[in-house]
Amino acid sequence: TRVVIASSNKGKLNEFNIMLNALDIQVLPQADFDIPEVEETGQSFVENAILKARNACKYSGLPALADDSGLVVDALQGNPGIFSARYAGPNATDQDNIEKLMSALQSVPEEGRSARFHCALVFMLHEKDPTPLVCQGNWEGRIHTRITGNGGFGYDPVFWVEELNCTAAELSAEAKNERSHRGLALKQLKQQIQDKLNR
Ligand code: ITT
């Protein structure tokens, strides 16, 4: 069975490739198809994941898995949240976004820097699937005051993982997937995807 991963984010695609590789499905990146980017007009991670999955099904004719995720920072009233990818502007790089976050939190002491990554995953068989699968995961942490580590992507170099005393960018892919918002959401979703494909 072929499944489209409705994402053009290389960091996400890497993680999905690792985590789905034991399943008996062929996962294809959205870039293998002529799929226009959908406008993320939802107000929540789940809504945006549904929009992305439906769009990928529509243009590929295949089942699709979509991920909408982001960083929710308490001291910033939940921002950047669903706007995490474009926090510093429409063409922002990961580094631009990190710099904007660091300056927004400049005067906030360590104990006020709590944050979590959130991930909503949606799996749909086809564009009009009335029963999409939805799973979500959270990863609690803190925004560090220094940028450290070369692994992962996005905000990983400033996401401090208390129990391991390092940032998410200093973890191996395996250690990140074991505890991340995406890893936890996908762990719940995996069996449901297989069951839905075999029905
Ligand atoms: P697609 O929509 O094509 O999947 P995107 O990057 O635009 O790619 P989102 O709208 O879901 O995806 O934005 C997610 C952003 O949140 C992402 O660009 C990162 O900045 C951040 N993010 C999500 N998961 C992350 C992780 O595991 N580590 C670090 N940053 C993460």
UniProtKB/TrEMBL annotation:
Q: Which CDD domains match?
A: HAM1
What's the Enzyme Commission number for this chain?
3.6.1.66
What GO biological process terms does the UniProt entry carry, in alphabetical order?
A: nucleotide metabolic process; purine nucleoside triphosphate catabolic process
Residue sites binding Mg(2+) per the record: E39, D68
Q: Which segments cross the bilayer?
A: none
- Positions that bind substrate: S7, S8, N9, K10, G11, K12, S69, F153, G154, Y155, D156, K176, H181, R182
What GO molecular functions are on record for this protein? dITP diphosphatase activity; ITP diphosphatase activity; metal ion binding; nucleotide binding; ribonucleoside triphosphate phosphatase activity; XTP diphosphatase activity
What does the record say about how the cofactor binds?
Answer: Binds 1 Mg(2+) ion per subunit.
Q: Which family does it belong to?
A: Belongs to the HAM1 NTPase family.
Q: Which HAMAP family match?
A: Non_canon_purine_NTPase
**Subunit structure as annotated in this protein's UniProt entry:** Homodimer.
Q: What is this protein called?
A: dITP/XTP pyrophosphatase
Taxonomic lineage from the root: Bacteria, Pseudomonadati, Pseudomonadota, Gammaproteobacteria, Oceanospirillales
